[in-house]
Structure formats: C-alpha cells, structure tokens
C-alpha cells in the first residue's frame, strides 16, 4: 500500500487531527493530535494491518509549546511496512490515552516513558516508576536535569576537567 | 516486605479459601542469572500471580547518549546485551551510516556478517547451556563455554577485547582481518560442530530434559505478537519474523539461510530454535568467509574515521581532522531515523533524532529483552516454581539490556 | 616439608620442624586453611558477571585456587564478589547481603563499575560499592580479564592467610563498620 493511500484512509476517518510531517525522514511519519492517538492506533491495527508495536518512546522539546512528545513505531508485518506516529502534549497537562488495551507490550514502554518524562498515560493499569527508585522526585530525561547526580560528593571535579 | 499491588484482580478467597504464601524471588536469587525480582504469590508449588520489579542496574544509557559524540556511543551499546556486544556495535554503526547516508562495500558487509554471526553463536551458546544448568545438567555448560572462549580469542584478534568489544568503526572496521583471525575462525568452524553435536546429544533427545522443558512457559503466537516479542522467543511460537530477512542489511540477502521456527512457544522450542540458529550461523560464516571479496575494510567517512597515525604526526589536515573527530565536533544531517538489526535476542532498534549537533538530540534503544520480559508473569502463572526458573533462562533476558 | 607427590600441595607456613612434629602459630594454621577454601558469593549484576562465568569455566577454572564451591547463600560465604554496576536501587541490597554474611568476611569489587561507577557517572548509578560496604580488593577493567579476576582473588588469599585472629575484634574494625552503619554480627 502506498503512503498516500494510507494517509487518505486515515484522513477520511480522523479528518484534521492527522498531519503529515513533510521531512526527509526514513519512515512515513504522521503527527496526530493527542486526543485521538488511541483511536488512530486502534484503526491502524484493525484496518491497516499494523499489528506490531515496535517501539514507544518519549521526547522533550523545551522550546516548543507542546513540550513533551511520544513517538510510536508500528510495523505492518503483512506488507513489511513501518509507520512512525508522533503526538505532543503540553508539560502542564501531560495526559495521553494509554494503548495497553490495544498492545499489551506497551505496558512497560509507557511506564518507562512516564518514568523518564512524566507523561501520564490515562487508563494504564499500573503507572509507576519502572527503572528508577520509587522515591525519585523528578523525571530525569527532561532536558533541564543534568546527567550526573547533583548530590554526589565522591568525585573531585578538578580531576575530571569540570 | 513489599505489598502486593496487583495489576490484575486477584481474588484471594477463591480456590477453597486456600492460604497463599508470598515468595520473594530475587533480586539476587542464585537461579535467576542476573538481577530480576519477582514477588510470587504461591499456592503450594504453583504460582498464582507474579509481580516484577526491574531497574536494579538502570545506568541511564539514553541520558548519557544525549551528551556523547556519535562514535563514543559505541561503548554504551557494548553494555546493552553484553553476551553479544559486536551485534550491538555494528548495529549502531549501521544506524549512524544510515543517518549519514554512507554505503559500505561488500567486503565490509561480509566481514560484518562474520563478526555478527560469531556473536550470535556466542550468545546462544550461553543461553542454551544455562537452560541445561538450570535443569540440572551442568556438563553441557563446561563443554560449550570452551567454544565461547575460542570466540573470545577471535574477538581479541579482531579488536583486542574479549567481552565489551567496541568493535569496528562507523564506515567499516579499524583494521582488516588478520591472518591469525582468519585461521582461528577456520579452526572454530571445524571444532564447534563436533562439540555442538555432543551438546545436542546430551540434551536434545534427553528424556529428562524434554520432560522438564516441553510445554513449560509456553505462549501463543497471538499473545507473543501482542507483547511485541521478537527474536528466538517470537520464532519459537511459529512466526518467522527476522530482521535479517525482512529488512536485509549488510548484504544478508546474498546468502541462503533458514529461519527456524517452533510450534508451541515453550522452553523446548526456544532451545531448539536457538540451537538451529547456531547451525545456520555456522553456515553463514563459512559462506561469507569463502566468498570474502577483495576490497578495502573501510569506506571514506573522513569525519568518523581516524586518519592514519603517520599522517597525523606529519601533516596538518589529518591532525586537525583527528582532533575534531576525537572531540566529536562533527556535524550530521538533521534527520530522524530508525535502524533495526537482528540482535541475538530479537529486534535491536536505534531511534535517533539528530538535530545536527555533535550528539543525538534523542537516542532510544529498542531493547528486545525489555519488551518481551513483561510477558513473563503471564507465561509462568499456573506453573511450578522450578519451571518458572527454566522459563526465565530460556527467555535469555540480559540485565544490561533490560534496564538500559 | 618435602613434597614428592605429583599433586599440588600448598606450602606450609613458617614454623618449627623436627622429626614427627611441626609447630606454628594458630593464626597461621587457620589462615592457611581459610585461604585455600574460600567460598565466594558471586554477586554478578552485569558484564563482569559473564567474565566471572568464564573464570569459573574449564579454561580458567577458579577451582584451582580452592574456590570451587560457590556459595549462593550469604550465610555460608566468606567472600563477597561484587561484579558489575550497582545502581542506587541495588545499593541497599548489597549492604543487606554483606550484613547477612558471617565474620570473617571479605569483599572484592570486580570491574570499574563496582570500584568507582566506571563510565556511568549518572544519576542512577552508585559511584563505587565502597559507599555502602568496606572493600578489601579492587580489580580494575571494563570488564577485567579472567586473569585479572584471578589476580584479585590471589590478593584476597594473601589477606586471608595473613589475617590475625584478633582483627575482627579490634576497635578499628568496629569503627569501620560503624562508619558504614553496619551492625557487627557474631564474631
């Protein structure tokens, strides 16, 4: 199936909430409004054979209005075709529908994204930190936080060129 | 003691009001080979419910990657699935090459296939011998680890390191295969099949082993796809998805090889799929080595390939180039790419968001082990504790890959 | 003592020999016994654990040094071998394992991560296990080769063989444990 056809099918179903990203990315990339992400992914799975969720991850653009993003990679195993779907939410209300009901594998990927970026997946069965300690009070992958632990006392900065 | 915060509704009053006991398996349980914690609710010997905790070696790879120049990220990929580092290294190099739009010649491709298939053999050898260990047969482990040691020696000839290899460069290799390396690979191709036959005789049709593994920890192909399984765990359920065939990289399409699939998705099928893959890898290495074309072992990617040391010491431009490269002050195109390779555990993907700077704006590793390990509770519910241990070792979850 | 057997017999400590008798101090006799039958607890978390598997396998065979028997229970272990990255989430577990070990106990930090955090100077990684437990021997490398792990093990054997029986009762040792907030178990 051609990319245009796929876009047309989605457009007739979801109208203005689907945007095509006009760049030279390697995979056909769509930008979807946050409110309709779950129905778009369900549509792709049920009607377009995108039955495999390859990947789900977050991203942070501090200078943008919609700071936080989630990127889904779906794979159509029948026609061996990939699609990338992006959606963005503001940092103040980082709410997004969970897709665990559609793909069980999204469970931990969403938890990881929550852990790293603080994106809240509404309807997730257990949205807790997964990789970091439970008492951590920030989301470490946000761009404003440093890589190193600010409280560490063990390394003399003079020896590390800082 | 952690309280059980159940994902699924757990009715403690059902089954004749039996009293359930809670068993904390891990994070340092001797039988789990790595640090995974499972809090099991047990009805006698039977597992009623499992609750996983991971993240015990979370090392913040993705945060580090946002601060490292591209070529330094290779060292991070080493430590993802450390049983088969070269696949991760070359996968990352392929991802950067895709970002830069670099095409490699056939010699590089074939050399890469040899190295990656060696790594796949090394990884599968560990996993399968450990299945043997966990079912009570330590002997096989001692036999095949000797062969793994020989693969380590080949790595040493190629790059100097044994485990965390940091092998290759963006655009090829740092040096050609030495005579010693080729001799050692040829020796391995003679020795390994003998030992592998012995190993298979020991386990494959062994009644005890079959009774311990057939029907243990099985998962249907529908559930496996729903959980985004990849690699041997998916193929054991009967789905022939392999990145080497679906999206051929490194000229894999030049070779004939079989993608083994199982039927029931149980521990025995996973064992057999891995075992057959070792045989296919041996075939691939033999073919690639026999047909190794002439050519250069690297392509011209000046920004990523260290110039000759002699030139660096005697000429100005190579010196500047060397300095710029080591400091990572290299521009890349603004682009987003996803590049996947078939790791030993499944589809190892690199999602790179490049903003043109010295390091990726965002780099996400698609770690197969992280994704399919979440199906573990579903696979072990209603099985016994000893079967749960076997199921875990047959899934080959590597802690470094799991926790990033 | 004369050693004509083809088997490898450990050397006797210093002492007085005359026909039929051999006298040495109790410290040395116990040290000799202990150092040649160390039960290590492999606390393998990541890459170095795979190199430890290689160390235990047929090619390098740590069993030659009297450590054939791995003790996966801390209660019976003499030596805690920490191999691999210890994240902050894992740190309390390491300390708990150490507390569960009976005296005398030794610790070896294998690899750069266990020694100092290694290349992972990040928000989630403990910068060396000596933040939570006292360490006797550090083995550098990322990961160290099996030869290096064996070398570290031989260093531990030297420490074990030369340890005085009073050491674990000394106020210095008690102060050391207190500085880590570890309760001393039965000595």
- Name given to the CATH architecture of chain A: 2-Layer Sandwich
Q: How many helical elements of chain C?
A: 6
Please trace the helix and strand order of chain A, writing H or E for each element.
HEEHEEEEHE
The fraction of residues assigned to DSSP E strands of chain A is 25-35%
Mean of all residue-level pLDDT scores of chain A: 86
Structural class of chain A: alpha/beta
The strand count of chain C comes to 6
The fourth-level CATH homologous superfamily of chain A is NADH:ubiquinone oxidoreductase Nqo5 subunit
Instruction: Give start-end ranges of low-pLDDT stretches of chain C.
Output: none
Q: Assign the CATH class of chain A.
A: Alpha Beta
Mean pLDDT of chain C: 88
Second-tier CATH architecture of the largest domain in chain C? 3-Layer(aba) Sandwich
CATH-derived topology of chain A: Beta Polymerase, domain 2
Q: Cα distance, first to last residue of chain C? A: 33 Å
Characterise this structure.
The complex is a heterotrimer of chains A (162), B (404) and C (187). Chain A has 162 residues and is α/β, with parallel strands linked by helices. Chain A is built from three helices and seven strands; from the N terminus they run αββαββββαβ. Chain A has one domain (3-147): 2-Layer Sandwich (Beta Polymerase, domain 2). The N and C termini of chain A lie far apart (54 Å). With 404 residues, chain B is mainly alpha-helical. The radius of gyration of chain B is 22 Å and the shape is globular. In chain B, the strands form two sheets. In chain B, strands 1-2-3 form a three-stranded antiparallel sheet. A three-stranded antiparallel sheet of chain B has the order 4-5-6. In chain B, 49% of the residues lie in helices and 10% in strands. In chain B, a hairpin with a 4-residue loop joins strand 4 (335-342) and strand 5 (347-354). By secondary structure, chain C is α/β, with parallel strands linked by helices. Chain C has six helices and six strands. Chain C has helices at 26-35, 47-56, 91-100, 111-116, 146-161, 171-179; strands at 16-18, 21-23, 40-44, 79-83, 106-110, 137-139. Classes of the chains: A alpha/beta (162), B mainly alpha (404), C alpha/beta (187). Chains in contact: A-B, A-C, B-C.
């Amino acid at each position: 199936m051609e990319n245009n056809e796929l876009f047309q099918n989605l457009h007739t179903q979801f109208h203005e909430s689907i945007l095509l990203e006009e760049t030279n990315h390697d995979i056909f990339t769509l930008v979807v409004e946050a409110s309709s992400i779950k129905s778009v992914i369900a549509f792709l799975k049920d009607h377009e054979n995108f039955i495999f969720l390859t990947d789900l991850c977050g991203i942070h653009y501090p200078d943008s209005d919609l700071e936080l993003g989630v990127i889904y990679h779906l794979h159509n195993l029948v026609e061996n075709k990939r699609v990338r779907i992006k959606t963005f939410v503001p940092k103040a209300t980082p709410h997004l529908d969970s897709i665990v009901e559609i793909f069980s594998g999204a469970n931990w990927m969403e938890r990881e994204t929550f852990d790293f970026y603080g994106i809240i997946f509404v309807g997730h069965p257990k949205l807790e930190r997964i990789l970091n300690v439970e008492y951590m009070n920030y989301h470490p992958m946000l761009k404003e936080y440093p890589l190193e632990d600010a409280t560490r006392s063990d390394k003399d900065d003079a020896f590390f060129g800082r | 003691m952690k309280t059980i915060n159940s994902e699924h509704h757990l009715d403690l009053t059902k089954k004749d009001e039996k009293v359930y006991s809670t068993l904390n398996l891990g994070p340092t349980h001797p039988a789990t080979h790595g640090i995974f914690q499972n809090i099991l609710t047990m009805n006698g010997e039977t597992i009623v419910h499992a609750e996983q905790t991971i993240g015990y070696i979370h090392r913040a790879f993705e945060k580090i990657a946002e601060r490292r120049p591209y070529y330094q990220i290779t060292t991070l990929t080493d430590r993802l699935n450390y049983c088969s580092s070269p696949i991760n290294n070359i996968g990352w190099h392929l991802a950067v090459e895709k970002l830069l739009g670099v095409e490699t010649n056939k010699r590089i491709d074939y050399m890469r296939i040899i190295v990656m298939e060696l790594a796949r053999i090394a990884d599968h050898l560990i996993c399968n011998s450990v299945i043997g260990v966990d079912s009570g047969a330590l002997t096989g482990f001692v036999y095949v680890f000797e062969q793994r040691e020989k693969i380590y020696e080949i790595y040493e000839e190629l790059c100097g390191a044994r485990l965390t290899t940091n092998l290759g460069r963006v655009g090829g290799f740092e040096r050609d295969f030495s005579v010693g390396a080729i001799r050692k690979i040829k020796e391995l191709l003679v020795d390994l099949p003998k030992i592998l036959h012995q190993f298979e005789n020991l386990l494959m049709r062994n009644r005890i082993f079959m009774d311990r593994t057939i029907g243990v920890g099985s998962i249907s192909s529908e559930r496996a796809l729903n959980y985004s399984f990849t690699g041997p765990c998916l193929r054991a359920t009967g789905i022939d998805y392999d990145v080497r065939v679906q999206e051929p990289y490194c000229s894999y399409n030049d070779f004939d090889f079989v993608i083994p699939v199982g039927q029931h998705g149980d521990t025995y099928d996973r064992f057999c799929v891995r075992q057959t893959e070792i045989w296919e890898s041996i075939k691939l290495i033999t073919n690639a080595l026999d047909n190794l074309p002439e050519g250069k072992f690297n392509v011209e990617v000046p920004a990523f390939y260290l110039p000759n040391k002699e030139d660096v010491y005697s000429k100005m431009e190579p010196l500047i180039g060397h300095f710029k490269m080591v400091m990572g002050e290299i521009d890349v195109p603004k682009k987003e790419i996803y590049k996947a390779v078939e790791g030993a555990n499944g589809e190892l993907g690199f999602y790179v968001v490049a903003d043109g700077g010295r390091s990726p704006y965002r780099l996400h590793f698609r770690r197969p082990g992280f994704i399919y390990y979440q199906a573990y509770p579903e696979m072990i519910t209603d099985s016994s504790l000893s079967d749960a241990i076997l199921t875990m070792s047959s899934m080959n979850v590597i802690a470094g890959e799991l926790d990033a | 003592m004369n050693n004509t057997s083809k088997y490898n017999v450990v050397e006797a400590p210093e002492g007085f020999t005359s026909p039929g008798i051999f006298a040495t101090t109790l410290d040395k006799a116990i040290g000799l016994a202990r150092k040649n039958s160390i039960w290590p607890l492999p606390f393998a978390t990541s890459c170095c654990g795979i190199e430890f598997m290689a160390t235990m396998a047929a090619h390098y065979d740590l069993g030659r040094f009297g450590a054939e028997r791995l003790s996966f229970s801390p209660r019976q272990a003499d030596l805690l071998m920490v191999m691999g990255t210890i994240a902050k989430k894992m740190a309390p577990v390491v300390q708990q394992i150490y507390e569960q070990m009976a005296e005398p106990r030794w610790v070896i930090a294998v690899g750069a991560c266990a020694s100092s955090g290694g290349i992972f100077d990040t928000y989630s990684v403990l910068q060396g296990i000596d933040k939570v437990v006292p360490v006797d021997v550090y083995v550098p490398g990322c990961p160290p080769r099996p030869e290096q792990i064996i070398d570290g093990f031989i260093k531990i054997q030297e420490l074990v063989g030369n340890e005085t029986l009073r050491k674990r009762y000394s106020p210095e040792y008690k102060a050391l444990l207190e500085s880590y907030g570890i309760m001393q178990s039965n000595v």
